[in-house]
Every structure is written in C-alpha cells, then in structure tokens.
C-alpha cells in the first residue's frame, strides 16, 4: 500500500483508510481485530472512528463501542506508533432514550436534531472521553463530525486550537460540511492564527449526486473545484462503494443508498464502469476504489468500512490495479 501526504502537513497516511464504525457492534471483536491486523500487514496506517460509533445497532446504546474496541486492540498489539488515528466529535446523541419507539429501528429524524454539537465544552468533554476509551494521550486527526451552525465558529475553532496546544490533537478536520462554511472556517483560522483543517470527510464515489439534490454530506462539483484549488485539504471519501451496490444490479434496485444518485447519469456511468471492470479483471466495486486511488486533483483517500473480513479482503485488489489513460478518460467522461 502506498502513502499520500495529508494536506500539506508532511504526514504520510495510507492511500486507503480503514473505517471502524461497525467494529464492536455489528462486527464482533475477533473479526474486527483480524481486519485491523490484516490492514496493518498490508501497509495501512489510517484508522478512522468516532465517539458515536455505533449507538444505532443496539437499543439502549450510547455509542463508544468502536473506540473501546480500538483501545483494547492498541493496548494488546502495541502498534499505536504505527497507526494514524482519527476520531470525531459533535455527533454523539444528547438523549438516546428519545431515539427509540416501539419498532426495531431508531427514529433518524429525531437523531438528526439530537446531536451534542460543536460547542467548546461539548467538544472538550467529547475528546477527553474519546481519549479515555481509546486509551491514548492524543489522536492524530480530530474531526468536527457534524457541522454545527447553532454554535459560533469562533467558539468551535478556539476550542480545537486549545486541544492542539494541549497536545491532545495533532490535526483537525471537518465532515458533513458545505463549501462556503469551509471557506469561512479557513478565513477565521488565518485571522486568529488557529490551526486550520487539513482533511474534509465527505461522501464521495464514482456516481455523481443527482441534479438539484440538497445534501450537505455528498461532494458536489463546487466542492470538488474548491478542493482542487486548496491542496492543503485532503478529501477523505466515506461510503465510496455506496453500500456495495456497484457489483449487484438487484441490490441497486430500490436500495436507499442509491436514492441520491438514481437517474440517467448513474445508469450511464455504471455501464462504462462495468465494461472497464471486465477489461482489467476487477469487480465494479474494486474498480471504483481503483478509480478513486488514481485521482490527483483533488487527491482522494477512500475510506472503507467493511463489516466482514471477506469485504476487507475483496477491497484490497484495488490497491495494485493499473488503469490506462484511455480507461481513466472513459470513466471520467461517462454520464448522461
């Protein structure tokens, strides 16, 4: 596995990041540890989690299971110095008991109004709890998980700057954020001498979100253009495989994850993706990862979140895939 520079920090992170969202809940501990060990054996170092991972699989959970599992793994394996560790704050639920009704699933409309947010005290407390669960004295990258417009940015950024000064955080990032907010954040950091974000974590894949969609979490053309012009920000793309829909037409049909993409553009891009995948001997899912790994403007670090060891193993062939200039051009040009 190759490495790429994170922003302009000089930090070298693996070109493929491993998400631990489901570890400790839907993925049991033995399987999680097996995946983490295999990822490191393949040369990976960029491990991503969040304090709220994952309250939703289990009624009554408050989150934190992923960080706790990673903490146990780090203590047992002694590999902390080999891991670029990222976690997030601001999306923990304030009142988890409000999220569950009579049915088996949580009420996500309530959850989206129930975030702790990015107030200074909330973030400081969240970070200290994350460090405790992880069993470490610092994290390498700390994201604001959900952009909080109810809190003045100055309050959030000053709190983050204090975490960096205290040595608890080395770099900061932002997630689920609009482009105009990124620019305002950068301007405030420059004005006050605060550390600016070096990574933005957004949903990004080969499919393009459909026209007119109002979705803060999915990269659009404007955000791609902004990131091309500001290479001190690395795009970390979550859900690059859109729940694995590329390999399975039956799974794509009616899958909720396809809703932001459905339409003639998606159909045209999947057709070309399928053709090129057959040419290079990859599955469409693998080719999506390979295409993302070939992106240089902006530079992209795909973040995979496998639930099973088999899903992790299936992603790894993308690392060595070579795409010709013609194949890349066909993939880029595809669309309605």
Could you characterize what this model shows?
- The chain is α/β, with parallel strands linked by helices and 336 residues long.
- 38% of the residues lie in helices and 14% in strands.
- Strand 3 (17-19), helix 1 and strand 4 form a beta-alpha-beta unit.
- The two termini are 34 Å apart.
Q: What characteristic shape results from the CA principal axes? A: globular
Q: What do the pLDDT scores average to?
A: 96
Helix content: 25-40%
Number of helices: 12
Unreliable stretches covering 5 or more consecutive residues: none
CATH-defined fold name:
TIM Barrel
Strand content: 5-15%
Give a quick account of the main beta sheet: strands, pairing sense, barrel closure.
Answer: 8 strands, parallel, barrel
The CATH homology group name: NADP-dependent oxidoreductase domain
Structural class: alpha/beta
- Listing every helix as H and every strand as E from the N terminus to the C terminus, the arrangement reads EEEHEHEHHEHEHEHEHHHEHH
Count of discrete structural domains: 1
CATH class: Alpha Beta
How would you write the strand order of the largest sheet?
Answer: 3-4-5-6-7-8-9-10
Query: How far is the first residue's CA from the last residue's CA?
Result: 34 Å
Task: Compute the CA-based radius of gyration.
Answer: 19 Å
Total strands:
10
């Amino acid at each position: 596995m190759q490495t790429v520079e994170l922003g302009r920090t000089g930090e070298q992170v693996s070109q493929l990041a491993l998400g631990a969202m489901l570890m400790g809940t839907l993925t049991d501990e033995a399987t999680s540890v097996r995946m983490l060990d295999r990822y490191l054996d393949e040369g990976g170092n960029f491990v991503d989690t969040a304090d709220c991972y994952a309250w939703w699989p289990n009624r009554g959970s408050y989150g934190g299971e992923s960080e706790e599992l990673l903490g146990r793994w780090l203590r047992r394996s002694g590999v902390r110095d080999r891991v670029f560790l990222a976690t997030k704050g601001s999306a923990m639920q304030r009142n988890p008991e409000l999220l569950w009704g009579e049915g088996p699933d949580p009420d996500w409309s309530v959850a989206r109004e129930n975030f702790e947010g990015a107030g200074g005290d909330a973030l400081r407390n969240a970070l200290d709890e994350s460090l405790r669960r992880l069993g470490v004295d610092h994290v390498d990258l700390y994201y604001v998980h959900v952009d909080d417009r109810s809190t003045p940015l100055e309050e959030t950024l000053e709190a983050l700057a204090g975490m960096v000064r205290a040595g608890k955080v080395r770099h900061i990032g932002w997630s689920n954020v609009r482009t105009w907010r990124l620019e305002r954040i950068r301007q405030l950091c420059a004005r006050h001498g605060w550390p600016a974000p070096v990574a933005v974590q957004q949903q990004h894949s080969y499919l393009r979100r459909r026209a007119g969609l109002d979705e803060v979490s999915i990269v659009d053309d404007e955000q791609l253009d902004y990131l091309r012009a500001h290479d001190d920000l690395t795009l970390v793309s979550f859900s690059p495989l859109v729940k694995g829909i590329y390999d399975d037409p039956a799974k794509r049909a009616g899958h909720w994850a396809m809703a932001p993409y459905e339409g003639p553009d998606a159909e045209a891009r999947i057709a070309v993706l399928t053709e090129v995948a057959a040419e290079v001997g990859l599955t469409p899912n693998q080719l999506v990862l390979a295409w993302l790994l070939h992106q240089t403007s902006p530079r992209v670090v795909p973040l995979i979140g496998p639930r099973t060891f088999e899903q992790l193993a299936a992603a790894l062939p993308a690392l060595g895939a070579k795409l010709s200039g013609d194949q890349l051009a066909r993939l880029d040009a595809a669309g309605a």
